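Side project, low priority. Logging it here so it doesn't get lost.
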Amino acid sequence: MSNTSDNRKKLQRPEDQLREMEVLIISAHDLKNVKHVTKMKTYTVVYVEKDHVAKTHVDEHGGTNPTWNEVVKVKFHAKLAENDVLAAVNVDIYAYGHVREKPVGSARVLLCDVLKGGDASEPVDNPIQCLTVQVWRSSGRPQGLLNLWVPPTGRFLIRRESLSFSVKEVAEEEMVEREVVLALGAGGGDEC
């Protein structure tokens, strides 16, 4: 049975292959408050093609200035960025509701503006650059700003819970280094 699925992968045309891209949805500011009775709780839906969407968690406390700080993985057809100059990363912002979700606004960034290629493990090919884009309401009016980051290679260089170093993490790393040095020093004296 797995042989059949292997054959399907081999027979898949290049235009049918999916590419995965990581997007860091950071925050938004000055959004339209679409919840007039209760505090607005927002989340985002991120996609390049509507068939493959990713969602962030619901920000419970930010209201019109939500913070998500979440990396989402978005899939799209590999040849799309090359063949369609208007292909874009779309970010739709919704207000969570018990009865229904209300659209707050949306933003988009063209793939050709953010995906530059290169090696994800090379810092030179993967610089940190935060983008701030206009959020547009469904009426067509601008309302708010969205902060996000799409690495030029489509993948993040560092895999950490946080992009900042804490004093505790640095102290733990130094302690491990000292233990390694002591262990090598003790072992090295016996061999000579």
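Brief comment: Residues 188-192 have pLDDT under 50 and may be disordered.
Revisit when time allows.
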